[in-house]
Amino acid sequence: MMRGGPMMGMDIKEEKAQDTAGVARRLLGYAGALRGQLIWVVVAVLVSSAMRLYQPYLIGVAFDQFIAVGDRAGLTRTMLLLLMTYGLSYSSNVVSFLQMAVLGQELLYRLRADIFARLQRLPLGYFDTHEIGDLMSRLTNDTNTINQFIGAGLSRVIGDVLSLVGIVIVMLSLNWRLALASFTVLPIMWVFTTYFSGRARKAFRETRKELGKVNAELEENIAGMREVQAFARERTNQARFSRINARNRDANVGANAITSAFMPAVDIISTLATAIVVGYGAYLALNNQVTIGTIVAFLTYVQRFFEPVRSISQMWTLGQSALAGGERIFALIDEPVELEDKPDAQPMPQIQGRVQFDHVTFGYKPGQPVLHDVNLEAQPGQTVALVGPTGAGKSSIVNLLMRFYDAWEGAVRVDGIDVRDVQRGSLRRQMGMVLQDTFLFSGTIGDNIRYGRPEATDEEVEAAARLVNAHDFISRQPDGYKTPILERGANLSQGQKQLIAFARAVLADPRILILDEATSSVDTRTEALIQDALHRLLAGRTAFVIAHRLSTIRNADQVLVVKDGRIVERGTHDSLMAQGGVYAELVSRQLTALRQNGRVEQEVAA
């Protein structure tokens, strides 16, 4: 983003908790889109659950019909059938787990694709109020928690729920009295689950937020390591990270303490249910109202009843974490996107380069305008220099021209067309921008030059580099245009990165070119190369140049002096110097500073 961003210094925004049921429905909606895998999972789980339900029944039959009377043949057949059910159950579990792994990865792919797509469309102001590390945590860590639950737990949860339903039906069919007696513990289970669920959701929401802060702190410190070491901030930053890391640790310990307390509660309730079945079953058996085989089968079903409950409670931890991650993901996906094109917006025709600002008023926050009734006009091929103190509104003018934002009042027109009436992409593809802080992407030098025009040939890339005097230094690199660029261009100087940015703009062949302090961070030798290239670069193009250096703006067709969001002076360098106003004062101050640094000769000569 350009210097002087609209939200600099604002507090990081806190997001409200979302409706948990709504988050769960949306996650299930993603899974529901993968019907093929889900069908296989459901079929496999049904088979596995049916086999597990059938097994206690076979054990009861073995006791009552074959063991009691010594029927070895019947017992053998029953045991073989029981063995077959175990085999089918195992095979079905393999199929369900495999399909869930595929489904989990596909869901992860779609979630991350949707998150990335939304990030591409969010307004620039969003990134001023949200930490980059936290956004990366949503794309990686939060989606991973969902994948862990889907891949490792959802098939188990589906199977466990089906098992619970089946066990209840079988228990009622075997002996409704014993079934109702064992179900008396369910209200206790419901109370425990409700209590722990509410606390766990809040706790896991906190863990996701604290992990995002850890990632944000890491990203910021690694990116700013040169400044950290230059200002000897290592110990201070270590102490700060320790505090953030400790909050993350404490949040996770608290969340796990809550979930750990749930499992013993399930075990106590399970033991209570078993005691009820044994006691009441013994009473019924003594009164000849139930057989021993039925009691044995019933005890097995009671244990089987709480096995899925225990399994669900284990997956419950992952589920709460996944829901907390889902909240953060959908909060991002639901963010309002960049300015939408009008429904009837048309592609921008081939730009000639005439630019008008017609009584434009604009601000980044309601009620706080930063531009006031701005009027300007640039003819095709003209170079317009924007000068003025920091925070005067220069970058805001080019922000509106690029349609990063829309004017509150008035209109910005290109070739007489209001930029709000055309498709943003078609407008920006005919415009180029070179910023003070050059950002280079991973890849080679050639890849970065052709970033705005990927289909460009090697010859066109080289021609662009030659035009801005970048070819010589590139050809001296180990692999020339195929030289890999390290993260943030660490293997290049600031001037070299700036020349690559100029070559990138040239190759895109924009009709309107914006230079935002594009030469302020380079040495005088590199600037001389750039100044030499600018005469060729700007030929036939409309250019808006934001600069403080006299050598960059003295040859502009018109100079606009911006102060407090208004254009207070306009004219050529010579005419404004003759007026002796704000511009003349700015130039005088600059020349005084340059004279003190021994550089005035170079500036004046330029």
3D structure, described in words:
Helix content is 64%, strand content 11%. The protein has 606 residues and is α/β, with parallel strands linked by helices. The chain has three domains: 20-333, Up-down Bundle (ABC transporter transmembrane region fold), CATH 1.20.1560; 344-430 and 511-606, 3-Layer(aba) Sandwich (Rossmann fold); 441-509, P-loop containing nucleotide triphosphate hydrolases (Rossmann fold, 3-Layer(aba) Sandwich). It has a six-stranded mixed sheet, with helices on both faces. Strands 2-1-4-5 form a four-stranded antiparallel sheet. A two-stranded antiparallel sheet has the order 7-8. Helix 2 (35-67) runs parallel beside helix 5 (132-174) and helix 7 (186-223) packs parallel to helix 10. The protein is elongated and about 120 Å long. The two termini are 29 Å apart. Residues 1-12 and 600-606 have low confidence and may be disordered.
